[in-house]
Specification:
The protein has about 170 residues and is an alpha+beta fold. About 25% of the residues lie in helices and about 50% in strands. It contains four helices and eight strands; from the N terminus they run βαββββαβββαα. It has an eight-stranded antiparallel beta barrel, surrounded by four helices.
């Protein structure tokens, strides 16, 4: 599956919710997610590859995901459900992967035609808006309607939540 998305740091969460609802979106779900990201400590070849390996657990159900960055705003995602996240974590460790960082967040999901909009409250780093759409044109349209532009003064966040949590952890 291919993802076309943009992520923005937000300060006024209530204002953003109102704007999302004004677009005609309704809250689809609000869930607690814990993402565990892995890195391979023994492989220098994987060190700078723009990808990540993750186990996500939501309401006791786990999925594995591997994402590869193809270009700006565009990722290739391979994701599937697994029966036991703890066993998978142990398997990864036995294969030489280490737990890199854990991202703990509350995700509010809103659905629109051809797009999904989420507000994430990420522990230790704050609130973010993600817009995922079926094309760049639709993505840019919804970002613009929500009041976000691209440029030097834009709050567009290019780093992953794992990167942001890792940076916050290293500051402390």
């Amino acid at each position: 599956m291919e993802e076309i998305e943009a992520k923005f740091k937000i300060e006024d969460v209530d204002l953003i919710r109102k704007k999302i609802i004004a677009l005609g979106a309704a809250l689809h779900s609000k869930k607690h997610q814990v993402d565990i990201y892995f890195n391979h400590s023994k492989s220098k070849e994987l060190e700078n590859v723009p990808s990540y390996l993750r186990i996500r657990t939501v309401d006791g159900l786990s999925k594995i995901a591997m994402h590869y960055k193809k270009e700006a705003y565009r990722w290739e995602e391979i994701e599937f459900s697994i029966e036991d996240g703890d066993k998978m974590k142990k398997l990864f460790k036995n294969l030489g992967f280490d737990i890199d960082v854990e991202v703990d967040k509350i995700r509010e999901t809103f659905n629109l035609e051809n797009a999904e909009i989420v507000i994430d409250e990420v522990k230790h780093v704050g609130y973010f808006l993600e817009v995922e759409a079926k094309s760049k044109e639709i993505l840019f349209k919804y970002c613009t309607l929500l009041g976000f532009r691209y440029g030097n003064n834009d709050p567009l966040e290019g780093k992953s939540y794992a990167d942001l949590v890792r940076e916050a952890r290293n500051k402390n």
